């Protein structure tokens, strides 16, 4: 039957054109997403930067630590602790050894990612003095020449102080970092941790001295000690997080649309199948012919889609770069590397499987009928629902409602995970698409009811056309349903989650004022101390640290917040579910309920500075995932600088009763002046933090929605073009019955609007199910919160979908109307 399939494709290539377009675009989308994902995991090759002039670099050895399996910014226990002085002395015995320390140090008007180093290590990174001299005193620094001039007095922010230094010299800027260089003694005071050693002795001797206590990097491996190694991974994190979500949602949408389009193309050719059965073709031969057609169409279309995806991936990457998701250097380069070949091969196979699978269902149904039934089915569309379709529809209905109920009651935290929740939103939408053929009849009668007594024949013709061709109507409804349903669910979920988080933060923070960083990564302890000295003012500034737990050969980390207990109770309203915050002391902690620890139990913890402590659980509080931290006593403040940068991400301020509010506010503003910290009210803090969190969430979900809508818009236009182009006989009957071209056009436009309306109704039903599940989940997590729907955007998507449906109808009808009625009949026959 391969020859018959080939001849059929040659003769009916116009009928398959829509299928080819859908398949090419679907495969291109899958290929582009796959390329983005594999490229994101393959970091770019960079030359050695900070230690290019050192023969060997000694760094903490972390053999069981994979940064990709941990949160960004988390150091391994060995890296947090740093190299020991004893190891430094051993390496120094092999030859000249220079200590490197990397810590937060920023000029008051300098870049946010500025870093401090001891001057002795500058020469290895290509730094050369352009003016002045090296820093010799504790009050001297060297900065890039574009930051300040030699002899200038500048304010430098560090984790522990805000201090004025004299610029003793300047260096030419380098492209890989913005550094501030201190004297070796001052650098050791600001950051006691030894991050690395630049060893100039024989590499073999250095390795022998280091033994198994540290890792010795030579050659190209020295780049592992550069900050850009971690920064590259960090800048790609959003891409690595977002692309799988986009790929799964957009890929599923593409597969569904392509499969539906191919099945619809086969259904359109029932007359050919009927004739083949009448002249003696067996059901097996019919199925084989259709499978061969699918293989031919799928092979050619998938190959074209792979090529389009290869060159279109960079356009998608550019879109992510423009939205601030991916770094500017993120590029897709065609090559024979596995990161390129693997996703392209996978996309090609997906195209073949989708085309064959999409054709198989319709081919099996056509091949199963008797010849006489095939002739009858070729003339009249079967409006009945097969047992298989009814079973599938029932399963879809139960699955969609069951999934919604599970989200609402069984696993409400799912809505807080974009990776999982965005994919879960598709379940009710796809269930509605499966139920579409069964819903066409009731919805057609309902939507056409207002026009039941209209004078003209158009309303009656539209109604009966939809009722007698339910399979065709359902096929054209599907892309409208997917477009509006996914846009409605995604955008409404995004806005509702943002509103719920705003409400939760507003409830949790009880302090009337706060400090937030202004152009810096955090707030130094000196600024906190300045505010604390203001009469009548109390301040809580939690310092982020890391707590490690060893699980066999790997480490698990948890966040800890170092904060004064009394200040914590004044500033925040933690929902304690066991124990009491009043029981917190220097030997206890408060943990989140997600840690599953009992009040009174004692836990052995490894801290970032290498110390091991035993703390008692004094209180357990309710927390959301991502906000589940342990609150630790102030004696662990030193560990914060080892774990992170020693800065407070925010500080909460309360006033003692009777304090003059205006005087206190003025004193606080004076205390933070010149420290790059902003004094805010609680409402201003909530608004700023909500805007930042909402931005990250919106970028992820709205970019996914954009990709899906672009594809679905094309699918709407494509499907309506296919459906209308195949109805030349209907058009001819209308013309020979006396209908004018305007009346014919009005009929087809009205029918396309009915199709759009059915799709929108089903989309709103699926969206309502999603929002019902979301409301139930948010109620359990945050209490009563509003559901926010961006009506303007959803209405815009709906209008565009309807316009595309009309365009997809008007174009082929307008072209057909130029022919005579007898020509139309002849073409159809």
UniProtKB/TrEMBL annotation:
It is found in: Cell membrane. It comes from the Bacteria. Keywords: Cell membrane, Membrane, Transmembrane, Transmembrane helix. Its main location: membrane. The chain crosses the membrane at residues 12-37, 242-267, 294-316, 336-363, 390-408, 420-443, 473-493, 704-723, 744-768, 788-811. Residues 473-670 form the MacB-like periplasmic core domain. It is a multi-pass membrane protein. Residues 246-366, 705-818 form the ABC3 transporter permease C-terminal domain. It holds the Pfam family FtsX. Belongs to the ABC-4 integral membrane protein family. This is ABC transporter permease.
């Amino acid at each position: 039957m391969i020859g018959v399939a080939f001849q059929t494709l040659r003769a009916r290539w116009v009928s398959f054109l829509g299928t080819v377009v859908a398949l090419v675009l679907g495969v291109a989308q899958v290929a582009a997403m796959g390329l983005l994902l594999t490229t994101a995991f393959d970091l770019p090759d960079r030359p050695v930067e900070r230690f290019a002039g050192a023969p060997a670099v000694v760094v903490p050895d972390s053999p069981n630590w994979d940064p990709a399996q941990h949160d960004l910014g988390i150091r391994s226990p060995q890296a947090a602790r740093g190299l020991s002085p004893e190891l430094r002395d051993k390496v120094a015995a092999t030859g000249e050894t220079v200590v490197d320390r990397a810590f937060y140090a920023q000029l008051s008007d300098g870049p946010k990612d500025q870093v401090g180093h001891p001057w002795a290590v500058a020469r290895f990174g290509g730094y050369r003095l352009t003016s002045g001299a090296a820093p010799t005193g504790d009050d001297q620094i060297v900065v890039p020449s574009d930051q300040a001039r030699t002899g200038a007095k500048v304010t430098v922010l560090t984790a522990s102080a805000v201090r004025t230094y004299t610029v003793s010299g300047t260096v030419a800027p380098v492209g890989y970092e913005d550094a501030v260089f201190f004297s070796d003694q001052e650098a050791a005071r600001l950051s006691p941790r030894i991050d690395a050693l630049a060893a100039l002795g024989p590499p073999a001797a250095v390795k022998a001295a280091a033994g198994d206590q540290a890792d010795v990097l030579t050659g190209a491996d020295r780049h592992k000690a550069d900050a850009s190694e971690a920064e590259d991974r960090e800048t790609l994190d959003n891409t690595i997080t977002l692309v799988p979500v986009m790929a799964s949602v957009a890929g599923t949408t593409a597969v569904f649309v392509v499969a539906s389009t191919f099945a619809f193309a086969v259904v359109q050719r029932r007359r050919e199948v009927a004739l083949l059965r009448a002249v003696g073709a067996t059901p097996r031969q019919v199925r084989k012919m259709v499978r061969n057609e699918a293989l031919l169409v799928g092979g050619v279309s998938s190959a074209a889609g792979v090529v389009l995806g290869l060159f279109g991936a960079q356009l998608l990457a550019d879109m992510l770069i423009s939205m601030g998701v991916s770094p500017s250097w993120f590029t897709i380069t065609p090559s024979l590397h596995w990161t390129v070949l693997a996703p392209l091969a996978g996309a090609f196979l997906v195209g073949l499987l989708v085309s064959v699978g999409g054709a198989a269902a319709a081919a099996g149904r056509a091949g199963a009928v008797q010849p006489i039934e095939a002739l009858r089915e070729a003339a009249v569309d079967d409006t009945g629902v097969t047992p298989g379709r009814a079973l599938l529809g029932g399963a879809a209905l139960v699955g969609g409602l069951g999934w919604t109920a599970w989200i609402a009651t069984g696993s409400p935290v799912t809505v807080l995970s974009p990776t999982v929740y965005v994919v879960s939103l598709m379940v009710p939408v796809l269930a509605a698409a499966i139920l579409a053929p069964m819903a066409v009849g009731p919805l057609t009668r309902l939507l056409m009811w207002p026009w039941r007594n209209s004078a003209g024949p158009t309303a009656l013709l539209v109604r009966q056309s939809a009722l007698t061709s339910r399979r065709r109507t359902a096929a054209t409804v599907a892309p409208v349903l997917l477009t509006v349903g996914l846009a409605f669910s995604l955008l409404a979920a995004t806005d509702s989650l943002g509103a719920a988080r705003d409400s939760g933060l507003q409830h949790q923070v009880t302090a009337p004022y706060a400090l937030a960083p202004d152009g810096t990564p955090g707030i130094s302890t000196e600024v906190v101390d300045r505010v604390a000295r203001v009469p009548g003012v109390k301040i809580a500034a939690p310092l982020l640290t890391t707590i490690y737990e060893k699980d066999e050969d790997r480490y698990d980390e948890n966040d800890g917040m170092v904060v004064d207990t009394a200040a914590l109770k004044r500033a925040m309203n933690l929902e304690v579910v066991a124990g009491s915050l009043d029981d917190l002391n220097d030997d206890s902690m408060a943990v989140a309920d997600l840690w599953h620890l009992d009040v009174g139990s004692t836990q052995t913890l490894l801290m970032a500075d290498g110390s091991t402590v035993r703390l008692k659980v004094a209180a357990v509080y309710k927390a959301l995932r991502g906000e589940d931290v342990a609150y630790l006593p102030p004696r662990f403040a030193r560990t914060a600088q080892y774990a992170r940068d020693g800065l407070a991400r925010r500080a909460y301020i309360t006033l003692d009763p009777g304090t003059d509010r205006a005087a206190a506010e003025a004193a606080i503003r004076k205390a933070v002046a010149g420290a790059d910290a902003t004094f805010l009210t609680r409402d201003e803090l909530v608004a700023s933090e909500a805007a930042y969190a909402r931005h990250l969430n919106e970028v992820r979900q709205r970019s996914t929605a954009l990709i899906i809508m672009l594809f679905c818009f094309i699918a709407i236009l494509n499907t309506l073009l296919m459906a209308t182009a195949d109805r030349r006989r209907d058009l001819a009957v209308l013309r020979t019955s006396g209908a004018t071209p305007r009346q014919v056009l009005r009929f087809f436009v009205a029918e396309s609007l009915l199709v759009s309306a059915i799709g929108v109704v089903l989309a709103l039903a699926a969206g309502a199910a999603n929002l019902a599940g979301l409301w139930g989940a948010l109620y359990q997590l945050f209490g009563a919160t509003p559901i926010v729907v961006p009506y303007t955007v959803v209405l815009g998507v709906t209008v565009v979908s309807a316009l595309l449906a009309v365009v997809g109808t008007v174009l082929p009808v307008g072209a057909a109307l130029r022919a005579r009625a007898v020509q139309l009949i002849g073409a159809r026959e």
